Amino acid sequence: MSNKATVSFTHLATAPYAPRAELRDALGLTGCEVSINSLPAGVAIPFVHTHKENEEVYLVLEGSGDIWLDGVVHPLKAGDAVRVDPSVERCMRASDAEPLTYVCIQAKQYATPNVTRKDGIVLQKEIQWR
Ligand code: ZN
Fold first, then answer.
1. CATH class given for the domain over 10-119
2. Ligand 1 center to 86 CA (angstroms)
């Protein structure tokens, strides 16, 4: 596996990939799962779920809808970010007016005690961009 990977995901939220495309294999991810999801207007995920040990972050790219968390409905709109503990029961739906497109990032809870700011190493290098 290469030490880097790039894939365009803009097409993944549309047919024939919709409603869900996972980037784990495409990018060779080893520490998290990233998926692109699209729910048509008026459509909800047909199940409620929890996780054993993974927290999730939902990043709403386009549209609007709701996320149901342990029985409480929270409105969603483009630009919103929601973090959900593994044990929280969850479901999502698109509004009746428009589709809901979002990224879901899933990673083991407490797996990254070194936040990016502490994990990154600044190197003294000059880069020739072109
Ligand atoms: Zn999940």
1. mainly beta
2. 8
State in Å: Cα 123 to ligand 1 middle. Answer: 36
65: CA distance to ligand 1 center in Å?
A: 17
d(CA 130, CA 120): 25
Euclidean distance between CA atoms 111 and 43, whole angstroms: 33
Q: How far is the CA of 5 from the centre of ligand 1 (A)?
A: 24
64-110 pLDDT, tens digit each:
999 999 999 999 999 999 999 999 999 999 999 999 999 999 999 98
CA of 58 to the centre of ligand 1 (A): 10
CA of 21 to the centre of ligand 1 (A): 13
Q: Report the alpha-carbon distance of residue 78 to residue 76 in Å, rounded.
A: 7
Question: How is the chain split into domains, by residue range?
Answer: 10-119
Provide mean pLDDT across the span 20-41.
89
Distances (CA, A) of 106 to 29, 56, 103, 122: 11, 4, 10, 27
> Do residues 36 and 21 touch, judged by C-beta distance below 8 A?
yes
The arithmetic mean of pLDDT across residues 9-20, rounded, is 62
